[in-house]
Amino acid sequence: MLDGEPLVRWRWLGDHFGYLADLTADHAVIALVPVLLALLLAVPLGLACARFPRMYQPLAAVFNVVYALPSLAVFVVLIPYTGLATRETVMVPLTCYALAVLLPTAVDGLRAVPEPVRQAATAMGYGPWRRLAAVELPASVPYLIGGLRVAAVSSISLAAVGALVGRGGLGYLFVDGFQRTFPTPILAGIALVALLALATDLLLVAARRVLAPWARGVAR
Amino acid sequence: MIRFEGAAKRHPDGTVAVRGLDLDVPAGRTTVLVGPSGCGKTTILRMVNRMVVPTAGRVLLDGADVASLPAARLRRGIGYVIQQAGLFPHRRVIDNVATVPRLLGWDRKRARARAAELLELVGLPPETARRYPAQLSGGQQQRVGVARALAADPPVLLMDEPFSAVDPLVRAGLQEELLRLQAELGKTVLFVTHDIEEAVRLGDRVVVLREHGEIAQLADPHTLLTAPADAGVAAFLGRDRGLRGLGLRPAGAVPLAALRPSYDAWELVLDQEGRPEHWRRGGERHPAPVFAPDRDSLRSALDAALLAPSGHAVAVDAEGRAVGTASRAAVVEALAAAGPVPGQVPHAGR
After folding, report:
1. Could you tell me how many CB contacts below 8 A there are between chain A and chain B?
2. How far apart, in whole angstroms, are the C-alpha atoms of residue B190 and residue A135?
3. Bridge partner residues of B9 (DSSP)
4. Complex-level ipTM beyond the 0.85 threshold
5. Which domain holds residue B23?
6. Does residue B344 belong to any structural domain of this protein?
7. Do A123 and B49 touch (CB under 8 A)?
8. In the predicted model, what is the mean pLDDT of residues A8-34?
């Protein structure tokens, strides 16, 4: 770090307000669209796994292996297919990572419905698919949202690494700061990533209150 | 009517749950299956709505083999109540109760109106309708479970230990409520319990099972208590059978004496409406135990006579006004006069 360079140049922040807002918005899209895509995949896959339990272990194994891969390596491997500096290079692996979190939560949530509830539903004349859709799925919403909170925060953090392959919203501030030995953008990036994660988490907690009001303060 | 014809259930691992059951469950009455755990009573119950498919024999519902009907349609016509109620946690009470009518294609408004009627029928205050199941007590949840089972007015009601998970006081209330409902609705009830007291209290007929779903005895509660088929049934019935049998005898047979100013120095003090307040002797006061001749059992009358310091049970009418008294001797006289065959028996009230 250069002598005399302050940790944070407040003026720089003021001058680049619009730029920082753009990067934050970009980061939110890159990080959270994959989570939404993963949710759209996790629900039908989870329902299928709940209906046909044998599917679950192999699927879970695949996504666990994907989850174990270092993100940067996956970004680099994807470049020949998606091109450098395209959003897809970052968003495809992020979708897989989110799915690796959401699929088990979806399946666990569907399975967590108490057996008497399941039996009562069957005894009232719900077929297996209809019961999954009308009883187990809505009853598993609190679980799903719990999984979404983990997946969203981890995706926001991972998306920053995408800057190393040319995309990555707020991650660009880290690359920029290191190259110029200029700490202000680095600290701003850290703060904005944390703020974005916090805001997303609060939004999901609010969503849980709206979508599953019955789960509030329920111990079981 | 439900008829079991050699209905058997053998599990894939070879163990036999039910060896082969022949049983007629009459329409409009309550039949209780009672037996130790593992005797196959729940399996038998579930054969009726095809939650369990017999490996041999068949089950007929009003003459039709239940296997010949589509499972979903069959089940929508059979109410089912289980131990933990099994309410849908994500639906409000009213929508839990409206489930089967909605499945049958009723519109939401009509289904909810019906659900509201049922909540009232099972004695739940209207404000419970908007709550979620987790906000209710265990006893309330069970009531909702019963309301939900009755929502589409099914002729048959299957109840699998519905009151076993609630505390004794609440259980007694729920049993009372079921007797009242059944007197009003006349459903074909098949009720499973391991509690012989509950069986004797609720059943028009009691089927005592031993293992593999074999019938040890099938009888009305009074016959069961007074004439158990064998030593095994007698042991299962437990102690004090004779005394408990009094709970099935109406107290109406007790001869009543007119109220007197004093009973061996004890005076019965009434309030302004004529309801007994207490027994008084000098400065001493004791509560005045009462029984209602038209509702209570001989057991209640005897109990009241034994507890009264004066030795006289006070008979009261529906409004709780004293209408007469019965001495211990008078109650015993009624006991002696009671023949072995029960007439129209009230259930042990309390």
Report:
1. 73
2. 27
3. B18
4. no
5. 2-247
6. no
7. yes
8. 89
